[in-house]
Amino acid sequence: MVLAEQFRDVMSGVCTPVSVVTALDGPRPHGTTVSAFASLSMDPPMVLVSLDRGSDLLAVVRRGGRFGLNVLESGQAELAKQFARKGKTKFDGVSWQLDDDLPRLAGASGWVACRVEQFIEGGDHVVALGLVLAADSVPLAPLTYHARTFGTHARTDGAS
Ligand SMILES: Cc1cc2nc3c(=O)[nH]c(=O)nc-3n(C[C@H](O)[C@H](O)[C@H](O)COP(=O)(O)O)c2cc1C
């Protein structure tokens, strides 16, 4: 087995949250499903998102310098699939509103509005470091991605 394949297999075993990163392309909302998102700093509050160099959303974020992070809840797997497609129809039928001048999806469990502080090249991806401008959440079960399937978190400690 070649290294790239072995690496892919390791990463498919890593359970990740699923989010949709959004930005405004002129008046039009754009969004992309992302698992490579993490909290970076608390003071100041910052996050990081890793986007493929070929991502159309990356080009939009480079132009506007801002992005929104919609952390999906367990019932939003279809939404995650819709935003993992290419093209300009990803928002068709999707309920959203502008928040901090960024597209915010209805029903997501978490919302973070960011201004890009820095782009860092990382192989075939680009990491955007975002300074948090606003954050909001509701306590819903998370949508997770593991072994190329969608799921959610299950408690194993102290549960009776
Ligand atoms: C569960 C899941 C996680 C993904 N995570 C990422 C990611 O972290 N970074 C990324 O660039 N693409 C990721 N993708 C792929 C993008 O969503 C996909 O390539 C999308 O079509 C890019 O759209 P865009 O060109 O409009 O930005 C993921 C897809 C899925 C289904």
UniProtKB/TrEMBL annotation:
One example GO MF annotation: oxidoreductase activity
Protein name in UniProt: Flavin reductase family protein
Domain of life assignment: Bacteria
InterPro entries reported in the protein's UniProt record: Flavin_Rdtase-like_dom, NADH-dep_flavin_reductase, Split_barrel_FMN-bd
Enzyme Commission number(s): 1.-.-.-
EC top class, as a word: oxidoreductase
Domain Flavin reductase like residue range list: 11-152
Pfam families, per database record: Flavin_Reduct (PF01613)
Keywords, alphabetical: Oxidoreductase
Residues annotated as transmembrane: none
